[in-house]
Amino acid sequence: MSIEVRDLTKTFGDFTALKEVSLQVPTGELVALLGPSGSGKTTLLRIIAGLEVPDSGSVLFEGEDTTDWSARDRRVGFVFQHYALFRHMTIFENVAFGLRVRPRRQRPSEAEIRERVVELLKLVQLDWLATRHPSQLSGGQRQRVALARALAVGPKVLLLDEPFGSLDATVRKELRRWLRRLHDELHVTSLFVTHDQEEALEVADRVVVMNEGQVEQVGTPSDVYHHPASAFVYHFLGNVNLFRGRVEGGKVYVGGIAMELPQDDGADAKTAIVYVRPHLLEIHIDQPDGNAHFRARVEHINPAGPVVKVQLLSEWGDPVQVEISQERYRELRLTKDAEVFITPKEKQVFIDRYSI
Amino acid sequence: MAGTIAFSRATASITRTRATTEPAIVRWTLIGTAVAFLGLFLVVPLAAVFTLALEKGVSAYFAAFREPDALAAIRLTLLTAGIAVPLNLVFGVAAAWAIAKFEFVGKNLLITLIDLPFSVSPVVSGLIYVLLFGLQGWLGPWLAEHDIKIIFAVPGIVLATIFVTFPFVARELIPLMQAQGTEEEEAARVLGAGGWQTFRRVTLPSIKWGLLYGVILCNARAMGEFGAVSVVSGHVRGLTNTIPLHVEILYNEYNSVAAFAVASLLALLALVTLAAKSVVEWKSQAHVTTGERTPARGEAR
Lengths: 356, 301
What we know:
Shape of chain B: globular
Strand content of chain B: under 5%
Largest interface: A-B, 37 and 26 residues
Radius of gyration of chain B: 25 Å
Largest sheet of chain B: none
Number of strands of chain B: 0
Distance between the termini of chain A: 47 Å
Distance between the termini of chain B: 46 Å
Order of helices and strands of chain A: EEEHEEHEHHHEHEHEEHHEEEEEEEEHEE
Shape of chain A: elongated
Helix content of chain B: over 70%
CATH superfamily of the largest domain in chain B: MetI-like
Largest sheet of chain A: 6 strands, mixed
Number of strands of chain A: 20
Structural class of chain B: mainly alpha
CATH topology of the largest domain in chain B: MetI-like fold
Helix content of chain A: 25-40%
Number of helices of chain A: 10
Oligomer: heterodimer
Order of helices and strands of chain B: HHHHHHHHHHHHHH
Strand order of the largest sheet of chain A: 6-7-8-3-9-10
Radius of gyration of chain A: 25 Å
Number of helices of chain B: 14
């Protein structure tokens, strides 16, 4: 079932959580709502579920306007960040709940309920915990029970609010891959909220980047990563170095060094912000030819990990982060306080519209 | 090896205890003061009640209960509690539910109002009803016309008792329900449960121990209330006397054995309440920590 929201606006007192947000989620896709806290992503999810009422705008399921439907009638599966398992019920009863509360005529028989619950618990690989209570399970197990419980009612749409938010890093990674596989098996339209860009890029078919109650960009993970629509998206998706530069005659000058302005628009602007990801900067010991480089001094080196992270101070006094491969690190023989030269391999320039 | 570990742990715990407690003399002085105070003001009077009640032997003790006025007082007390407690149970749950789970205008006012009976003297509470329903009160003439008796009759006693006891259940539940939040109810709603199903299957089971605790306290107060009931009762023997009022009358008539015998009933009620309260507290603690330590509770379904 497809989901569409049109011009949703929601305020809480003075705070505007959503500003005329429109979004389409096609049937069978796994879509991530990505944004910092306070960007409105959870509010959007809760409005789609019917747990929150929008001030204006509408929510459509498969083209049908469901804005005024109660959460009860929408038949969506919702997974809460803190699981929200019924603490006094066994795992079995938690999963069976959605079936047991159906009106008598639609309610499956006890045998059917049992069969369905066992099947779901097997799907989430927890059938051996059926008689336990939620407090006896680990965080990852609870989250899987919450998912099984949401799936029990056969939802056409699955909504997940920071599903892995309260888990530790290892379990988190494992569980998100598992969610991806599960989605490939079930193909239920799913929308999940996250503030972790790595999670969104790894799991989702499409990513919706949100900021301050508005959608900044919608696209495939590769789209939003490689072709960010705004400075915010670039900034939010991964570590980034930020250089403030002057614009003059179609070029950007950062600390006296000229760089090509890759975009035509905004040539009249006075300042621009140049964004460069740490792995797109190169370190040289000898001064390269031409002008497209600047000087920097090595402040700190962290060689632990797949890449070596180098902290430097640029010639005009801004901190710079560079990531280089272990091979390159050995080749350069970097030491603290070494004077080096830095060149960008690729950069994104965004015209600074709010120039200070 | 194991011995070494055990030993080092033991020493560690001893030093830690020393580091975080006061010297023995301070501890024993504080404990001694508390025990002496409790003994003097609680245990001695309680013992005195039973001693004086049994002063003239067991038969005199039981004779006090065979008296028709005493039986009427016991019946009235049971009736009053039987009406006041269930009503306050419903009210308390409704109020706590509203306050903990919803945002609405006037919420703080409602919380303040719930506390009102705690802050007002019970005698004043009784007087409010006399002013309202008494012959010279606002509704008095109308009630007299329709031949409805509230003041100096059973309805007045029940009303005053309800007023005095209504914070108990609500006060017990509000913090509990606030702490539990609304996520479980939301989950139930999304899963297709209606309002009543959500309450019965999700909310009620998670507050049941707190609720029982509130009911026990509410009941104890409903049976033992003196001030408010005294004002509205009119002290009609065999008709509008509850146990506490009956005790007062007997005592004023210098019938101390009967007075203390009947009073011992209330003292017994207090002891039973305390025991019940401890059991419930212990149970609810166990309920909260279920699973943190205990293995699977095999629940055959």
